[in-house]
UniProtKB/TrEMBL annotation:
Keywords: Signal. The lineage of its organism: Bacteria, Pseudomonadati, Pseudomonadota, Betaproteobacteria, Burkholderiales. Residues 450-464 have a biased composition (Basic residues). Residues 436-485 are annotated as: Disordered. This is Amidohydrolase-related domain-containing protein. It comes from Roseateles paludis. Residues 436-449, 465-485 have a biased composition (Low complexity).
């Protein structure tokens, strides 16, 4: 039975996505829309701003210079904006996906990340050669910032061999180069140099899948869909920690969750119950309150991945049961104050799908949900950077929304403005090129329109302009009340 979104697909699309996992795809795809371009770093004055601080909406004026928020108004600005009713939030982050780890995937999905306001991402099992092709694409101002994990460890009959290989057999498994195969702790010494070389990004991904059911090892249809033994995972984690590396564990069941905790892993990249490939009783995915508290004590990070559940198309009664288990798991983790991150594992989507799925699930208060998506997850992916905040010294990256997402989450669907480290991101090349050319002194009083005082006020309202375009006007007919100068 399948354990991944990839294995839901059949025919040419399955082959195309398998090629994405293995390396550059040969399939020809239509070119994407006009790419985003980044302006030069701009100096900004944002008057009458409202912004989400991780708990609630704050109000005041904001200033940007040198790519960061600053405390004092700059002497001159490239963009002076009067924000009326709109809300700024930090960009979203995606803690679990695979769609940007090849050049083909980057071409298909990188623009979508920016479209949906997702500026930060973790790709959790990339082939080193394919990732090497993508890194220069990611190292651009108008691109999502990505952490790539290329040290992926599973058993010789483990996931994701069944989805990676067209014909998954012991022979083809030994010949593939994307995954490091490990069956016993004793094999670790021989395999460690290869694992260590691949773990340049600081993290290893390891797979647990139904380890508590050893009888599955003897079933041919389960080949390529299992994972490490708990003893092997524990030995791998100890070795990784000795070399200052983190371990992220893929899990399926609550028993896998407990084994990952016992091994001391740093991340658990699925909430149990995201899928039920074996048709198990839903209680197999329910973690205990004791396990939730252990995760909190150990500082283990749990990535949510509830959006992926519907992709497996469970029967309505099973979907409802899994959703109930997910709510219970999240409630127990919250009660224990365990650390959660937002990640979707939806190959055709981004973290925005996960935010919506969690909101629909009703398991997290909306302020907490937005904090996880816009502050906690970005900081976990890039701990050395000041992300997800609007205080002086924080990176000046944000989305401008038409209204308050705490009241209406649909405001996330189409940002009016995207700014990354003080640079305007836009699909209009001429706007990106010209943005830094205009400047105005912040000491100059605003110019009044000719005519009577009353007429001047009316004229000022008529002249209120949309923010600098971040998408072609044809795609965004939504009104904006921000005045841009």
């Amino acid at each position: 039975m399948p354990v991944s979104f990839f294995s839901l697909l059949r025919g040419p699309l399955l082959l195309a996505l398998a090629a994405v996992a293995a390396g550059p795809a040969t399939a020809q795809s239509p070119p994407p829309e006009a790419p985003y371009e980044a302006s030069a770093p701009l100096t900004w004055e944002l008057k009458g701003a409202r912004w989400f601080d991780g708990r609630q909406i704050q109000r005041g004026n904001l200033y940007i210079e040198g790519g960061v928020f600053v405390a004092k108004k700059p002497a001159k600005v490239n963009r002076k904006m009067d924000l009326r009713g709109q809300v700024l939030i930090p960009p979203l982050a995606e803690a679990h996906n695979h769609n940007l780890q090849t050049a083909w995937g980057w071409q298909q999905f990188a623009q979508r990340y920016l479209d949906e306001g997702v500026f930060y991402a973790a790709m959790l099992c990339g082939d080193p050669t394919s990732v090497a092709e993508v890194r220069p694409l990611a190292d651009q101002p108008a691109a999502p910032d990505v952490n790539f994990v290329t040290a992926c460890v599973t058993s010789s009959d483990g996931y994701p061999l069944a989805t990676l290989l067209k014909d998954a057999t012991p022979d083809t498994a030994r010949q593939q180069q994307q995954l490091v195969l490990l069956d016993t702790p004793e094999q670790l010494d021989a395999q460690w140099p290869a694992i260590r070389e691949r773990a340049a990004g600081g993290m290893i991904r390891a797979v647990l899948a139904h380890h508590e059911r050893p009888e599955l090892r003897g079933r041919p249809e389960m080949f390529g869909r299992l994972g490490l033994s708990p003893e092997t995972l524990s030995a791998l984690t100890r070795r990784a920690h000795a070399d200052q590396l983190k371990v992220a564990a893929h899990v399926e069941s609550a028993a896998d969750f407990d084994a990952a905790l016992a091994a001391g892993v740093d991340w658990i990249v699925h909430l149990p119950g995201y899928a039920n490939p074996l048709g198990d009783p839903p209680e197999r995915f329910l973690i205990s309150q004791e396990s939730a508290e252990q995760a909190a004590r150990q500082g283990t990070v749990i990535v949510t991945t509830v959006a992926a559940t519907e992709l497996f198309q469970p029967a309505p009664e099973m979907l409802a049961a899994l959703r109930t288990v997910q709510r219970q798991n999240l409630a127990r983790l919250q009660m224990a104050h365990a650390k959660l991150l937002i990640g979707s594992d939806v190959f055709m989507g981004t973290a925005l799908a996960e935010v919506k799925a969690l909101d629909q699930l009703g398991a997290l208060p909306r302020p907490e949900l937005l904090r996880l998506a816009t502050r906690d997850t970005p900081r976990a992916l890039f701990p050395q950077r000041r992300l997800g905040c609007f205080e002086p010294g924080c990176e000046a990256s944000f989305l401008l929304l038409l209204g308050d997402p705490l009241e209406d989450l649909s405001h996330l669907d189409q940002p009016l403005l995207r700014v990354k480290q003080g640079r305007l991101l836009t699909q209009l090349a001429q706007v990106a090129a010209a943005s830094s050319l205009a400047s105005a002194s912040t000491a100059e009083p605003p110019k009044k329109a000719a005519g009577s005082k009353k007429a001047g006020k009316a004229g000022s309202k008529k002249q209120a302009a949309k923010p600098p375009a971040s998408k072609p006007a044809a795609k965004s007919a939504r009104p904006a009340s921000a005045k841009a100068r």
